[in-house]
Amino acid sequence: MKNKTLKLCNENIHAGERLSLALPLPELFSCTPLYMPIKIIHGKQAGPCLLVIAAVRGNELNGTEIINRLLDSPSVQKLKGTLIAIPVVNVYGLMTRSRNMPGDVDLDKSFPGSEHGTHAARVADAFLKNIVDLADYCIDLRTGFLNYTNLPQIFITPGDEQGKMMAKAFDAPVISKVKPLPHSLRTMAKEQNKPYIVYEAGEAMRFDESAIKVGVKGIKNVMRKLDMLPIKPSIRPIKHFITEECVWVRASTSGICHSQIQLGQLVKKDELLTTINDPFAAGKSEEIYSPYEAVVVGKNNSPLVHEGESIFQLAIFPEMEQAANHFENWQDGELK
Predict the structure, then answer these.
(1) What is the pLDDT at residue 30?
(2) Which pLDDT does position 319 carry in this prediction?
(3) Cα–Cα dist 168/87, whole Å
(4) Cα(60)–Cα(212) distance, rounded to whole angstroms?
(5) Hey, how many other C-beta atoms are within 10 angstroms of the C-beta on 75?
(6) pTM as predicted
(7) What is the pLDDT of residues 243-278, one digit of tens each?
(8) Strand, coil or helix: what is 99?
(9) H-state helical runs in the chain
(10) Of 154, 152, 160, 196, nearest to 175 (Cα)?
(11) Which value, in Å, is the radius of gyration of the alpha carbons in the chain?
(12) In which element (H, E) is residue 267 found?
């Protein structure tokens, strides 16, 4: 069946067309106009509309590179349905190398927004009405914070069975069930019963080549699952490990953090995670132990930590030994 004409930003996009559009955003006080870039591949044949977005927090760059590589891939040029890709949602944050919008407001805490609200609320409102409402499925590309690296993982909303299906198809090493925060884009998707997954990997303001490759491959896997791309026969059985509990281990004192623990590593309960030393060599060392048997899925890369600061993120799985073997194999490239 031939794809129907799509209308976006007052443009009629016909079946088989590929366009670059720009969504007008609130201008800066310098009277500089801002636009959100929109990339569209509108297939000749009918099918679902997949929205892939990046840089909702402006300094999270891995997703932008994932989208650029995805759009350059020959395999997506003959898709069924429609791909709408937004390489940068938070254009202001990208320009200022910041997570947030003017006024230091987090865009992902500003939905559904308002056309008469704050700068962030106006962007949220325009984004929802002009872009998100068109999508049948959504993939949101994120990273860890500055100085924090995350093992590639998918976040899904509890009860979102189609999102769970997409997460399994994506084939990242970790799937986490996490309730969406109030006023987040994922909450809006839940209220609209719109399948929505978040892929989070690497660190803000850094390219992580492994995370980027997993992201590009994962999106294509989802598109195949949605019958937007031809299905490739699976050459291996895939077992997925889903966690409903992730915990942060925090520094009990301030100082210099010394650790050899790596992402994806299995740690036993009461295993030594790190030692924190006084940077002025005046006080005693403090040892931090794992409160659970778990897999390390997030890590603070900074050697300097303050008391109460997050150091490691631990994921707890029902089948810990099997999960640990899974991550070890994945890191060795056997599951790529």
Answers:
(1) 81
(2) 75
(3) 24
(4) 12
(5) 13
(6) 0.93
(7) 878 899 999 999 999 998 998 888 999 999 999 999
(8) coil
(9) 62-72, 91-96, 119-130, 161-170, 185-191, 209-225, 320-331
(10) 154
(11) 21
(12) strand 266-267
Contacts of 6-12 with CB under 8 Å at 24 or more apart are 6/40, 6/42, 6/49, 6/82, 6/134, 8/38, 8/40, 8/84, 8/130, 8/131, 8/134, 9/38, 9/130
- Tokens 């031939």 found at: 2
Tokens for 239, please give them: 């077992």
Query: Residue 89 region, left (φ>0) first, then alpha (ψ -120 to 50), else beta?
Result: alpha
Query: In one letter, which amino acid is 73?
Result: S
Tokens 């019963």, residue located: 193
Tens digit of each residue's pLDDT (9 = 90 or more) over 105-130: 999 999 999 999 999 999 999 999 99
DSSP one-letter code for 45: B
What is the rounded distance in angstroms from the CA atom of residue 244 to the CA atom of residue 264? 17
What's the CA dihedral at 230, 236, 242, 246 to 10 degrees?
Answer: -110
Q: What tokens does 252 get?
A: 């009990």
User: Tell me, what's the pLDDT at 335?
Assistant: 46
Helix-helix angle 62-72:209-225, to 10 degrees = 50
The ranges of the chain with pLDDT < 50 are 334-336
Q: How far is CA 9 from CA 6, 35, 40, 165, in A?
A: 10, 12, 12, 31
Domains and CATH numbers, the chain: 6-225 (3.40.630.10), 244-331 (2.40.50.100)
